[in-house]
Design brief:
Chain A: This is DUF3325 domain-containing protein. The complex is a heterotrimer. By secondary structure, chain A is mainly α. Chain A has five helices and no strands. Chain A is elongated, with a radius of gyration of 14 Å. Chain A starts with a helix and ends with a helix. Chain B has three helices and no strands. Chain C folds into three domains: about 180 residues, no CATH class; about 200 residues, no CATH class; about 150 residues, no CATH class. Classes of the chains: A mainly alpha, B mainly alpha, C alpha+beta. At the B-C interface, helix 1, helix 2 and helix 3 of B face helix 1, helix 6, helix 8, helix 9 and helix 11 of C.
């Protein structure tokens, strides 16, 4: 796969992680995925924002700046909808986004 | 859903939002292009800038039409504003061409 | 207007959203299809299923093609109505201007020309005294494509999305423009109404009752793609602004505009008028080579997207060569103009000023001439999310008022629901039916394109009639069976289209994906199959909901 293709894949992956972490940082969704633990770790939200930033950088490595901006803004809704659908139909799948060592307070 | 406005008032607001605001924005665009060009901006740059501003302005005015307390005041502002601006644009054009 | 600001904004969102939502469905759906308009053309016109070609040689191929190009009978008829006296015979009209246009996705080349006429106009202000000719040609051979092969993608779905194919006085363009403005209004009022914007960013509760889960989906698809929806509506308006919506330069400020054009012509050195002195055309291929060299020097190497010649055959003639802007978003032309008789460079377009650059970015964002397949598919996803947002809006509107309307014996919900079916399943069905007709109609049939268009409108009308006919249950606060019935019809039509493509052209999916890859056609076939799957899934889910509702009423008590 070409260089640009790999960077785009990285952008998509970090975007998926970002939406996963940001979703899990919301109490209602944390309880959907981890029935036992009550409270989401406080650093999930900053981690999510960081992953968003990483995806921006990956987009800019893949393409001309003007296209990178558009790719990022259109990746976001696709990732967000994918995360939302996972939460609605198979919430347990999202546990992979937050493995055990991240769950510790 | 409680509607505390009469049917006539609602129709008036709808017409103001669609057509009244359109006329007002037309005035802003015409006057804006003429004024910018008169101030030295290249014609197409002036035109493009005003086109982009136009729809953001239209959006804001549209919402104001429904948020404002008095529909009469809305019509006054839109009608007088557009007439004044269109006339000013015409006048400015005459002055520029000389 | 109402008791509070929020209530007023909610009123605007509901009623303007409902009425213009039907137009917006068309704009968003056909807009999404238009991302791959040229690929749909390839599917519909099998003779064009070859690889995209660069602009061919002018000296060796296009020169002869243009020599053979005649004024088009349709434009002859239209122009004859605007001028005094009879038009001269088409073979005698001199060609005074021409263009050739291609992109990185086009196997075929679009060409056009202007022919001069000696007649005077009926309206003295009418300064457009030319007859036009046009054609689509195979750039490998110069052969012209038959005229009545309708380009279903670029010449039907694409214009549908910005004009609704209603051309009388350009009313369709204005209606779509109003709808786009209302889209912006709906987005802002939606945000004002939606209190838990961030908390419910990922919220979708499909197991709750229809009203709640529909609203969840409506909110989610609206919010997560908000920048996308906003920018597409906004840039669409900006693209048509100076020509249709705020044509100040052609009306109130025409004197100012025309004065600028003359000054600009003097400044650029590109002659506005003919000299009246005949002159030969130098080697255009040499000019193209020079243009490419200059672009490469500027670190913007590329192919020719648009070739134009003004004042053909005259001493003032000039050749304009524009780059196919495929590596960035902005629709830059990097135009280079040459003196037609000598081939010397007259002018290199300078980089745009800041306003121009912003404008080029915005229009380029919408018109998508860039080469980025991932981004194209992301655009389709965004467009479909917009469709889901609008469709769930309709469903929510009906669900919220169904009970009350049933109690008060009103028919409003029933009508809205029927119209929703027509603009959701019915519209997709009409588009796919058009593709089916495209494969069923005989190849050499005259007026083939017109038959395809009639199929489109006919199926859409049938779906409206079907939806109305089946809508009685909505007036009793139940659901319209037309939704799932049209889903089944759609699934059948999609599979039929794919099978017919195989039967009539031999291009089945195994061939177009693996054996002799041709992704334009494979993409359309795969999308049709995906649509069929979604339709079947939806139809079965809708049937299950009905069964559950009926079963839950057996005990005399309805559980919701």
């Amino acid at each position: 796969m070409s260089n640009a293709g790999l960077w785009l894949l990285a952008a998509a992956a970090s975007m998926w992680l970002a939406t996963g972490w940001l979703a899990l940082s919301l109490p209602a969704h944390w309880r959907q995925v981890f029935v036992a633990n009550e409270v989401a770790p406080g650093y999930l939200r900053p981690l999510g924002w960081l992953a968003l930033g990483v995806s921006v950088l990956c987009c800019f490595k893949a393409d001309h700046p003007s296209m990178a901006v558009l790719v990022w803004f259109t990746l976001l809704p696709v990732a967000a909808v994918a995360t939302a659908m996972t939460l609605s139909y198979r919430p347990a799948l999202l546990r992979v986004v937050c493995p055990v060592f991240l769950r510790a307070r | 859903m409680m509607v505390s406005a009469s049917r006539g008032a609602i129709i008036s607001r709808i017409l103001a939002a669609i057509f009244g605001c359109y006329a007002f924005v037309w005035g802003v665009v015409a006057l804006g292009v003429a004024a910018l060009h008169g101030a030295g901006v290249e014609y197409h740059a002036a035109e493009q800038a005003m086109m982009m501003l136009a729809f953001l302005l239209y959006l804001g005015l549209f919402l104001w039409t429904f948020a404002a307390a008095s529909v009469r005041r809305v019509w006054l502002v839109l009608a007088v504003g557009s007439a004044v601006m269109l006339a000013a644009a015409w006048q400015l054009q005459r002055m520029i061409i000389g | 207007m109402l008791n509070s600001f929020r209530q007023s904004m909610a009123w605007v969102h509901t009623w303007f959203g409902l009425v213009l939502g039907f137009v917006l469905m068309v704009a968003f759906f056909f807009g999404a299809l238009s991302v791959f308009d040229r690929e749909i053309d390839r599917w519909a016109i099998p003779e064009t299923r070859f690889e995209p070609q660069p602009m061919p040689s002018y000296d060796n191929l296009l020169k002869q093609v243009f020599a053979d190009l005649k004024p088009h009978p349709l434009d002859m008829a239209a122009t004859a109505e605007r001028v005094i006296g009879d038009l001269p015979a088409p073979e005698t009209m001199p060609m005074v201007g021409l263009f050739a246009y291609t992109t990185h996705r086009d196997p075929v080349l679009r060409i056009g020309a202007e022919f001069a006429i000696p007649n005077k106009p009926i309206d003295p202000k009418d300064d457009h005294l030319h007859v036009h000719g046009w054609a689509t040609i195979d750039p490998r051979t110069g052969a012209a494509l038959p005229d009545d092969q309708l380009k279903i993608g670029s010449n039907w779905f694409y214009p549908m999305h910005y004009s609704l194919q209603v051309h009388w006085k350009n009313i369709g363009v204005f209606v779509v423009g109003l709808a786009a403005l209302v889209m912006l209004v709906a987005l802002v009022t939606g945000v004002i109404m939606h209190r838990k914007l961030f908390k419910e960013f990922f919220t979708f509760r499909p197991k709750k009752r229809t009203q709640r889960s529909t609203l969840d989906l409506h909110n989610m698809t609206g919010v997560v793609a908000l920048p996308f929806h906003f920018f597409f509506a906004f840039t669409g308006l900006v693209i048509f602004a100076s020509f249709y919506y705020f044509p100040v330069s052609g009306t109130l400020l025409k004197p100012l505009h025309d004065r600028h054009e003359v000054i600009e012509a003097e400044h650029t050195g590109l002659p506005h008028d003919e000299a009246g002195v005949p002159a030969e055309l130098a080697s255009v291929d040499a000019m193209v080579a020079e243009a490419k060299r200059i672009w490469a020097e500027r670190d913007m190497a590329g192919e020719v997207g648009l070739l134009m010649i003004e004042h053909l055959g005259d001493a003032n003639g000039y050749v304009s060569i524009y780059r196919a802007g495929s590596d960035r978003v902005a629709l830059v032309g990097e135009g280079i103009h040459f003196k037609a008789s000598t081939g010397e460079v007259l002018r290199e377009e300078p980089p745009s000023d800041p306003v121009g650059a912003v404008n080029e970015f915005l229009t380029g964002l919408h018109l998508q001439h860039f080469e980025h397949w991932t981004l194209r598919w992301l655009y389709v996803a965004g467009g479909l999310l917009g469709c889901i947002c609008i469709a769930t809006g309709f469903v929510f509107f009906v669900e919220k008022r169904k009970q009350e309307h049933a109690k008060r014996r009103l028919q409003g919900c029933r009508l809205v629901d029927a119209m929703a079916v027509t603009t959701v399943t019915g519209m997709v069905l009409a588009a796919v039916a058009m593709l089916v007709a495209n494969r069923l109609l005989p190849d050499a049939m005259p007026g083939r394109g017109d038959w395809e268009k009639w199929t489109f409108w006919g199926v859409w009308l049938l779906s409206l009639l079907h939806a109305l006919w089946r809508s009685a249950p909505v007036a009793q606060a139940r659901s319209n069976p037309a939704w799932r019935e049209q889903c089944w019809a759609l699934a059948l039509a999609c599979v039929a289209a794919v099978l017919l493509n195989w039967l009539t052209t031999g291009d089945h999916l195994l061939k177009t994906m693996l054996l002799e890859p041709y992704w334009a056609v494979a993409g359309v076939d795969l999308s049709l199959l995906a649509c069929a799957l979604v339709s079947v899934f939806t139809a079965r889910r809708l049937a299950r909901t009905v069964e559950v509702k009926q079963a839950s009423r057996i005990g005399g008590v309805a559980y919701e």
